[in-house]
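Budget justification aside, the reviewers requested a transparent look at the raw inputs and outputs of the sequence design task funded under Objective 1. We therefore reproduce one unedited record. The lines immediately below are the structure tokens for a 202-residue chain.
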């Protein structure tokens, strides 16, 4: 049964964050492992452990194990998202179940990092095609960094409508950048031809 994080797991996560902020990365990783043991169905501890293993924070870098942790986190976050879809926020929902938007965001975050693993060959075969597919899935789930990535990549390939759509989504999530006013032009909001004054100017 998928439910919210247990009290011990939350405590360990808070200690992990505090230790990380203090630069005590080994101790932070230690608390993350305890959080994972305390609540094996919670995706966040194993996800963060994967990031620590990727970058060698408080440990030796281990890219294969990092990717394995990310894959586990993806499966757990998908289970949580399925539970939110099944139960919603009704009275029959398990206690502490994440909100639908929170569960969706977690899936998007994990997909974003798995995309990076495939893009750079971190613990898995380098595959830019698969990396791009995972990145677009993450963007479609609302991950802001993924939206920026897909938007800027689309712009490089002259797919301006697609670029505008994803960059608008990123802006809804708080992303800001100079020189992107063109994404709000009418011709990119609707299916109008981009000619004359409606065209982009970079």
């Amino acid at each position: 049964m998928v439910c919210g994080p247990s009290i011990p797991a939350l405590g360990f996560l808070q200690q992990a964050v505090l230790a990380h902020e203090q630069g005590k990365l080994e101790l932070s990783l230690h608390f993350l492992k305890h959080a994972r043991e305390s609540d094996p169905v919670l995706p966040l501890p194993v996800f963060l452990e994967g990031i620590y293993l990727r970058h060698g924070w408080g440990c030796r870098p281990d890219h294969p194990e990092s990717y394995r942790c990310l894959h586990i986190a993806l499966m757990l976050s998908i289970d949580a998202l399925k539970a939110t879809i099944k139960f919603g926020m009704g009275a029959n929902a398990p206690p502490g179940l994440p909100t639908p938007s929170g569960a969706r965001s977690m899936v998007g975050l994990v997909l974003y990092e798995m995309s990076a693993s495939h893009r750079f060959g971190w613990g898995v075969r380098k595959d830019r095609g698969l990396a791009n597919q995972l990145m677009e899935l993450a963007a479609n789930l609302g991950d802001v960094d993924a939206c920026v990535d897909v938007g800027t990549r689309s712009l490089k390939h002259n797919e301006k409508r697609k670029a505008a759509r994803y960059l608008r989504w990123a802006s809804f999530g708080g992303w800001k950048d100079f020189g992107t006013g063109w994404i709000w032009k009418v011709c990119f909001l609707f299916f109008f031809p981009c000619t004359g004054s409606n065209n982009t100017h970079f």
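The radius of gyration is 19 Å. The first helix runs from residue 7 to 21. Computational costs for records of this kind are itemized in the attached budget.
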